[in-house]
Design goal:
It comes from Boletus reticuloceps. Pfam families: DnaJ. This is J domain-containing protein. The chain has nine helices and no strands. By secondary structure, the chain is an all-alpha fold. The chain has a domain of about 80 residues: Helix Hairpins, CATH 1.10.287.110. Helix 2 crosses helix 5 and helix 6 packs across helix 9. The chain is elongated and about 150 Å long. About 10% of the residues are buried.
Length: about 250
């Protein structure tokens, strides 16, 4: 008779084969989900860059307006790996990659970044004045961090967080500057066109005058020749008349 107590007190361990067959399946599922999440994030990042405000490189790189150069370089390397056309099937990944490269180049250019930071500082100062706040406040000041909850601001209908307000103001200032820049270029081109037309008119005037002078000179020689021919014919006529008179007198 089999020993039932032994079989109940000494249960057999679960099969290692069954355990090993479950574990890879779980890992494969996790890897699949990870790949799908990664692919989704790449697509999302490409779309974000394509929709970012193109006049603000900080916005394209998704950086704070006070980011340092090392932050810019680090974020660029990170994003360039995420949206690289070789790593995502998004049809506009090359466009997003070019936009990202241009943004990093502008922020790495000292002169361009200085101009951009000056425009941001101007927008910040203008916004603080409009809110009747000191111009020397830093972004971590409680009056700015809690701006959307300030009863005075809420009474004026201002319930937008400070960073969003600043971002919108910077956008407004940069658009105004871009409009002025384009108008200046257009005016310069117009002035250059006007100057070019003036030069063309001057050249045409000089050419016309030269042609008129040449025509006058040619006609003058013709007139002189005609006058000489006329004088010669008069002299011949007088000589003929004189000869006839003398001939008549002789007879």
């Amino acid at each position: 008779m089999p020993d039932s107590s032994k079989s109940s007190s000494d249960p057999r361990p679960p099969s290692s084969k069954a355990s090993s067959s479950r574990t890879p399946t779980d890992l494969e599922l996790e890897q699949l989900l990870s790949r799908e999440a990664s692919a989704f994030q790449r697509e999302v990042e490409v779309e974000r860059i394509l929709k970012a405000f193109k006049l603000n490189p900080y916005d394209i790189l998704d950086l704070d307006l006070t980011a340092k150069l090392e932050d810019i370089k680090r974020k660029y390397r990170q994003l360039s790996l995420v949206i690289h056309p070789d790593k995502t099937p998004h049809p506009r990944a090359p466009d997003a990659f070019d936009i990202l490269k241009k943004a990093e180049a502008e922020l790495s250019d000292t002169n361009k970044r200085t101009e951009l930071d000056a425009a941001i500082a101007s927008a910040r100062s203008t916004l603080l004045r409009a809110l009747s706040l000191p111009s020397n406040l830093t972004d971590d000041d409680s009056r700015l961090r809690n701006l959307a909850d300030d009863p005075k601001m809420m009474a004026q209908g201002l319930t937008t967080p400070w960073k969003i307000m600043l971002k919108e103001k910077v956008k407004e200032v940069l658009i105004e500057e871009e409009v002025r820049r384009r108008k200046a270029i257009k005016m310069n081109l117009a002035n250059e066109g006007l100057e070019a037309r003036k030069k063309e008119e001057e050249v045409a005037t000089r050419k016309r005058k030269a042609e008129e002078d040449k025509a006058w000179e040619e006609s003058r020689e013709s007139r002189v020749g005609s006058w000489r021919s006329f004088n010669n014919s008069k002299k011949k006529k007088k000589a003929t008349l004189k000869f006839l008179d003398e001939a008549c007198s002789a007879t």
